[in-house]
Each structure stands twice: as structure tokens, then as C-alpha cells.
UniProtKB/TrEMBL annotation:
EC number: 3.1.4.52
Domain annotation HD: ranges: 193-315
InterPro entries to which the protein is assigned, alphabetical: HD/PDEase_dom, HD_domain, HD_GYP_dom, HDIG_dom
Keyword terms of this UniProt record: Hydrolase
GO molecular function: cyclic-guanylate-specific phosphodiesterase activity
Gene name linked to the record: rpfG_3
CDD domains: HDc
Enzyme class: hydrolase
Domain HD-GYP span(s) in chain numbering: 171-366
Name the record gives this protein: Cyclic di-GMP phosphodiesterase response regulator RpfG
Lipid biosynthesis listed as a keyword: no
Amino acid sequence: MADEMERLTEALSIKFEELSLIHQLSEQLKLDEDPATLCDCLLNELAPCITANTLLIDIERDEESGVRSRMFSTGQLHSPDFIRHAIECVEHYHNDSHQAVMVNNHVVVDESGPWRFIVVPIHGQNQLLGRMIAIREYKSEEFGTVEADLMKSTSMMLGVHLVNQRQFMALQHMFEGMIGSLASALDAKDTYTSGHSTRVADLSVELATRLGFDEDGVARIRMAGILHDIGKIGVQDSVLCKPGRLTEDEFEQIKQHPVLGYEILKGIRPFRKILPAVRHHHESWDGTGYPDGLVGTNIPRDAQVLAVADAFDAMTSDRPYRSGMPLDKVVAIFQGGRGQQWAADVVDVLLSCPEVMHAYSKREPTDS
Ligand SMILES: [Fe+2]
């Protein structure tokens, strides 16, 4: 009875440790991380729990999602050829690549000596995604079910997470493709300002970074920059592509584009975070802008940054009917409009970075 109790207590303690590890790992795994980070994190957590010369995760190549074959390991290094040969031997010996295999007596030899192995397949959606492998010197004690069970549990979790991660990345990829297609559609329609959106996005990122935006904020402003003028898709070609001066009525049509952009994007959830920037990038600090005549700090911060980047690119870019302004003139306009048309601190950041202004304009200042 006492022996049985002791055996049960030990089994419970092992299961508890296994569950703690799984819980710890599940809290650390993030969908938007690179698979390498995920595998490294998992190996680091697993290494103290399994005595082995090498712990290794071998990810299989997947044509569909573009995942390439990769190997991650802790402990003693082995060549990929050694690992592949070992997997072949183990799986051939057991004639099954779908089950966890523990090999304590079958010896795979290389020049460094015989080894013991545990090879656990990593499955996800009925597909073999890779393998988790533990390698121990033959002279050490045999692997047992404790190590094998721990590896099976973590492999199962890794499999689910890798599938989720691949789906997340595919969605992300599709979303980025959609943004690119929308921007190309606008470029195709508004050939006069081709490339404007990308330049505004890049300059907005420069400014936002210097203004202390966090990583999410910088990513958001990049997307807003690319799509800020998307509403121009809804403006008539005869107005949008008219060289020279616009009539009052034509200008009123152009002024609809921030609201049109807002309406185009508002139905798509991931775009909601950029709606304030898209709608308000033509507001003016003194309240004379459009479409809502917002004043000062009522203008969303992203729109304040975008407005400066947008105006800078519009002033410095060549158009078929006029050349871009020289930088010294652009600087003078920004100095005059600082705190009147644009947020003063955003203008200050731009004017304090001559190297950025030079890089983003096609023309050198006339006095330099
Ligand atoms: Fe605009």
C-alpha cells in the first residue's frame, strides 16, 4: 500500500510538472511571432526538464504556406545529415512516421559514437509538420516514458500552435496584398501622383518614430499613409486628372475624398484603426480644413502627422504641369504654417531633420 501510494504520488508530481510546463509555454506563445522564436522558446523551457545531449525541433517544408525546412536545437550540435539519417533509421526501424518512437537499444552510429533517441512527430490538421527529437549518449541511462510523455504533450501543443500561426500569417499576407492592391488601384487612376501614397507612408513612419510612437502606432501610420487618399477612387477622372487650376465645384468634389475613403474602409474591421487618419488628414490646426473643420488637438494625432508628410510630398514632388518646389521654399511654408495649419511639434520634427527632408524630396535647396 505504501509503495503504491509512493508510486502514485510520484506519477502525480510528474503530471503536475508536465501541466505546469504546458501552461507556462501556452502563455508565452504568440501568433505573430516567427516560428523560430516559438521553437527556441519551447526548447528553452523543455531543456531543464529532459536530460539529453541534444533537444531538437525539425520543421518540415510546406509548399502551400511557403514554410521552409528548418532545424532548431539546444545542447550538443549535430549536422543536419546526422539528424536526417537518424530519423530515417528510427522511422524505418519502426516502419511508422506517425507515432512517437523511443529507441534505447537500436544504435545509430556516427563517428562520435552510438546514441539513444526519442523521435516525436509534430502533427497539425492531419499533416506531419515536423518532429521533436531528444538525443542522449548510449552510455547514459535509457530514456523513459516521462521524457516521451512530456515531448508528446509539447509536440501536440506545438502542432496546434504552428497551424494557427500558419493560418494567421496567411491571413496577414492576404491583408497586406489587399492594401497593396488598393494602393495600386489608386495609382492606376491617379497617374499624376503615382508613388505619392508610399512616400507619404514612409515619411509618416519617419516622423512618427521620432515623435515617440510605439511599434503598433508606427505600423498603423504606415497603413494609414498608404491608404490615406483611397477615397480619390470615387472622384471623377476628369476632375482628378485635370492639369492646372480646379474650379470651385471641382475642388468641392476633390474635397470629398477623405469622407469617401472613410466610407470605403469603414466596413473592414482591420482598417478601423486608420479611419481617423484617413478622414482627417486635410484638417487644419486653425479649424479651416476639411471635412469636419476640427481644431488643434481635436484633430487625431495620426492625422496631424499624416498632414505634414502629405503636404511635404505634395510640395516637393514634380507633376506633369509643374516642378516640385525647392526645399528652402518648402521649409519657409512649414515655418509659416507651424501651429496654424499644422501641429507645431510635428513640423518641428520635420524641420529638425534636414537629412530626412533631403532624402524625401527630389530637389536640393537652391541655396545649398
Ligand atoms: Fe488627401
